[in-house]
Amino acid sequence: MKPDPRFSNHNLAFWANVRAIGETVGYTDRKTKSIYVPTQEDLKTAMTERSLQFSHLFNKAGRLTNLGQRLLQYFEYRANVLNHYVEPRLMKMNEAKKQFDILRRKLKPKCPLPLNKQKGDKKKHAYLTGIVNMIIESHTKGLSCDYDPRCLTTITKNEIPLRTLARRIDGAFPGTVNPIAIWEIKEYYFTTTFGSRIADGVYETLLDGMELVELKKSESIFVHHTLIIDAYDTWWTQGRSYLCRIIDAMNMGYIDEVLFGREVVDELPKIVETWVKEYHKR
Fold first, then answer.
1. Which of 47, 56, 216, 270 has the smallest C-beta neighbourhood within 10 Å, fewest atoms?
2. pLDDT tens column, 177-232
């Protein structure tokens, strides 16, 4: 999934309203267990409860301003993509394992297929990471790729460090020095609660994106930034509010694309092909 061009050019004030309203009125419809779409009345309620003005959202006649209308359009878009596109694409552990096994038999990979960090009966392959690695290997056609970076990503100018990202990422093509693309993987098939570690993962992605946006603005250097997530029970059953925040971050320009669950099988090959084309242009 890529950002919707209707919302990708809004300023930070727009997103300040999105966050304030969402946090105040909530993200989930508890009756239907789907993503909630705030109403006109919710806009007033959110501002009032936070002791904020709502004159920027309603004119003196009580009608929505352009900003108020755009906010409602965005909330409707966000709920629609999550309820009807993302939710059916998130996989449970058995589905991910099946897809992993299919690709492993078909591709006979040489790339790393790491285990997860669980213990005992839960210690299995990290299925989503394995799927991602196999697809990337099969479409980079022998080019170098770092599937498990053990150092920070550095952008250079004349072989001198220009920027170094604050945290390690999950993969870089062709490597962690001057990468064409970096990606992050969030798979939580065995997680039973939506804990702080998972929430922190969302904010870490936001931090990476902010650094890459600054790099692009200041130095005109663009690095593809992809987020790949899966685990139906974790993200949909427990973490729908964080899915909303991921959609927000993507449309704010901090993530170039997000791949949800089985979407990785259809979309990642096309994304990797664009990386390879860029590699050959260097």
1. 270
2. 999 999 999 999 988 777 787 888 899 999 999 999 999 999 999 999 999 999 99
pLDDT at 113: 96
Same domain, 97 and 84: no
Farthest-apart Cα atoms in the chain, separation = 66
- CA 66 from centre of chain: 28
Q: What is the pTM of this model?
A: 0.94
User: Based on the domain organization, do 138 and 268 belong to the same domain?
Assistant: yes
Same domain, yes or no: 85 and 98: no
Q: Are 134 and 259 part of one and the same domain?
A: yes
Domain coverage including residue 148: 93-281
Of all residues in the chain, the percent with pLDDT exceeding 70 is: 100
